[in-house]
Amino acid sequence: MKNIPIDGVRERLIFALDLTEDLTETLSWAERLKGHVGMFKVGQESFTRYGPEVVARIHQGGGKVFLDLKYHDIPQTVARAAEAAVEMGVAMFNVHALGGKEMIREAVRATEHKAEQLRRPKPVLLAVTVLTSLNNSDLEALGFRSPLEEIVVKLACLAREEGASGVVASPQDILAVRKACGPDFLIVTPGIRAPDHAGDDQKRTLSPGEAVRLGADYLVVGRPIRRAADPVLQAEAMVQEMSGAISQ
Questions:
Q1: Quick one: pLDDT at residue 201?
Q2: Is residue 179 among the annotated active site residues?
Q3: pTM
């Protein structure tokens, strides 16, 4: 992100909308933060509970959606899911890179074909590398022998080769992915926390400014905004921090 006006920076902040057991309350957050963040992430919790309605309602309110379902199945199944994501009109969605190159390739093809068929913009298709809740010890317990960063880079390169627009990767993996995949490959970064955050299930985190300085294109933020005394002010503070990091 270079020389981007403040509204453009705001577009790169994504609020994680997995919140409550009440759809009205969930949507109230989208209404509250509309204009202060660029996109709303609908993940497995919200989508399983509310289905496509939550996406439709966010769109009706003028918001954009990042559908974070991490599709991971046989290639044809994921391709059909990708088509459905395009039909819902989401701005961004993801698959899991561990599904392999054929799965990613078929998802990319299905996305492009369906968007062309419907004459609408093609959504950004991302591949998830390694969840930010996992570290080297966790991967060793799962039987992986390579270091975490090496696995992330391999998965990112595979996703790029098969046509994905970018990856979802930990802030601590940004530099390695950028070096391996180049400046035009998008990096969407969860695990963003305030510098003084108290610890939770995210094991590899950085602040918004740190992540942007390393080269992140989009930041996904949930709890630091949701738990703030004034969520709107917190979102705007993060946008200002991102902008300041860009200007440096």
A1: 45
A2: no
A3: 0.91
